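Input (structure):
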């Protein structure tokens, strides 16, 4: 049994959680910087770092209070060491290592993507290993074979724009707020697939992803229609529906191909785009596969997934306080 404090500060969310290896999540708190960055249309790294500084300690104290524990009761501190924004990662690493040193507790550096990969284990209906993971977020569209914790093989990766980037960038073209994925999905609920947009690399006979062509096609479409200012609300809904259908079609076909190639028929879908209901619906229509997701409120970056990963790696906890981070950190380098 171990009680792990998890700290996530890789980008624009400050996530803190307490996870008990037997009881599950004891408390978690998440502060999103969306309102801060929305006016710029994307994340401003320096502002993200400053906001983490302001929020991280109050959130840690809040979690301890919610879980009715004292910080001296924890067994280890897990924190995101990369990949992510350098300054933002340094805030989490500094607090994690400094706090662990003061409490004489070990630390567990966690790969951010591993946190996402393992996040469905936060649900009651848990996958078993091995499984195939579809990791879809703002910066990543990857298919990964997961043999066990720490043994990952990248089957397919993003060549340019990831699925989340495609949602965000096309949303910006429609003058929608940042981050755009949920706003595209909301519009799509009232739209029809009026425009047949390309499905990039759908027939590439591999497991790679590329969504930059979709972004270009949407920009061209909006220009042909007279510019975004001239679009009716229904036309915007129809464009959003067409975007969503394009992206989810590619994600589903590539995922099924990965399952057939490996002979593994358990699929874990994680990352921010895993909250997309149309993606979940399409995957749910395939009878031969079992699909697992994180809880809807834990699809984006959060401390609970880092605390969970720390619990699953508790045997690697060390009294080795290291304030360095790894902004570029390929998943294959995990040991």
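Output (sequence):
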């Amino acid at each position: 049994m171990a009680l792990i404090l998890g700290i996530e500060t890789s980008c624009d969310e400050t996530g803190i959680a307490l996870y008990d290896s037997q009881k599950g999540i004891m408390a978690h708190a998440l502060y999103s910087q969306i309102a801060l960055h929305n006016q710029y249309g994307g994340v401003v790294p320096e502002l993200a770092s400053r906001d983490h500084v302001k929020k991280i300690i109050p959130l840690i104290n809040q979690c301890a209070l919610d879980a009715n524990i004292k910080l001296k009761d924890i067994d280890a501190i897990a924190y995101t060491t990369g990949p992510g924004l350098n300054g933002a990662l340094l805030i989490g690493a500094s607090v994690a290592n400094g706090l662990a040193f003061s409490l004489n507790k070990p630390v567990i550096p966690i790969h951010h993507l591993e946190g996402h990969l393992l996040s469905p284990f936060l649900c009651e209906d848990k996958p078993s290993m091995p499984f195939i993971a579809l990791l879809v977020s703002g910066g990543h569209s990857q298919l990964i074979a997961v043999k066990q914790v720490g043994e990952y093989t990248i089957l397919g990766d993003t060549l340019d724009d990831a699925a989340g980037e495609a949602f965000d960038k096309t949303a910006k073209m429609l003058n929608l707020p940042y981050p755009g994925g949920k706003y595209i999905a909301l519009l799509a609920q009232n739209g029809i697939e009026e425009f047949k947009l390309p499905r990039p690399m759908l027939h590439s006979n591999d497991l790679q992803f590329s969504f930059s062509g979709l972004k270009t096609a949407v920009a061209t479409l909006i220009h042909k229609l007279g510019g975004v200012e001239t679009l009716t609300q229904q036309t915007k809904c129809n464009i959003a529906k067409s975007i969503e259908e394009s992206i989810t079609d590619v994600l589903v076909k590539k995922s099924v191909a990965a399952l057939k190639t490996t002979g593994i028929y358990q699929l874990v879908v994680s990352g921010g785009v895993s909250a997309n209901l149309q993606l979940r619906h399409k995957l749910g229509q395939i009878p031969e596969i079992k699909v697992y997701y994180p809880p809807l409120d834990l699809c984006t970056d959060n401390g609970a997934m880092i605390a969970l990963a720390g619990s699953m790696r508790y045997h690697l906890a060390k009294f080795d306080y290291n304030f360095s981070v790894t902004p570029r950190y390929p998943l294959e380098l995990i040991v």
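Notes: The chain has ten helices and ten strands. The beta strands are 3-8, 13-20, 24-32, 76-82, 107-111, 131-136, 141-148, 151-156, 266-270, 290-292.
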